[in-house]
Amino acid sequence: MNTSEYSKIYEGNFILINRLKSELEGIGIVPIIKDEGESQRLAGYGSLNQGFQEVYVHNDELEKAIIVLEQIKTEMDSSS
After folding, report:
1. CA distances from 37 to 33, 41, 43, 50, 51 (A)
2. What sign has the CA pseudo-torsion 66, 69, 73, 79?
3. Is the pLDDT higher at 41 or at 69?
C-alpha cells in the first residue's frame, strides 16, 4: 500500500471500525482496515493493542469518507 495514495481517517476499537466500514461500503467506498495487533498475533507475537484498528481510504474518496465519519461521530455524541 503506497501511503501517498491512502489517508488514515480513523483509529479505534473494532466495533466502531466495523460500523464505519459498513457505512463506507454502503456508499461505494472500500476502506482498508489495518490491524497491527492481529498481524502480530498471527506472527506468533504478543500485542498490547488487541482490537485496535486503523481505517484508510483512497485519497480520491477522502472527502466523502470524512463526511460519513463526521455523521457517525455526531450520532455517537448525541446518543451519549
Report:
1. 12, 6, 10, 5, 7
2. positive
3. 69
